[in-house]
Design brief:
- By secondary structure, this protein is α+β, with helices and mostly antiparallel strands.
- Helix content is 69%, strand content 16%.
- It contains four helices and three strands.
- The protein has a three-stranded antiparallel beta sheet with strand order 1-3-2.
Length: 90
């Protein structure tokens, strides 16, 4: 095999997401194009090729970016509420 194949766990660790996030993105079409099953230590293991890795990486970056934006919005709202409460206490 000339490609650098990665397991779901390796991808999840590398991209900073859960294995479930990776599994949720692997639909039938993705599996047919980018996933192989190989034996590792006697067990059938799903591995993703480089093209599939690139797509998953892009998807995870998008998810993490959205999450960061959402967290910033929540933090901003909390700061406003804390200022309001402090103002009322004074």
């Amino acid at each position: 095999m000339s490609e650098n194949l990665k397991t779901i766990k390796e991808l999840a660790d590398e991209l900073g997401v859960s294995k479930q996030t990776i599994r949720n993105k692997i639909d039938k079409d993705f599996r047919e194009k980018f996933v192989q099953t190989i034996k590792i230590k006697g067990n059938n293991t799903l591995v993703i090729n480089n093209a599939g890795y690139s797509l998953l990486k892009k998807h995870c970056k998008m998810i993490l970016h959205r999450l960061q934006k959402h967290c910033k919005m929540i933090l901003h709202r909390l700061q406003k509420h804390c200022k309001m409460i402090l103002h009322r206490l004074n």
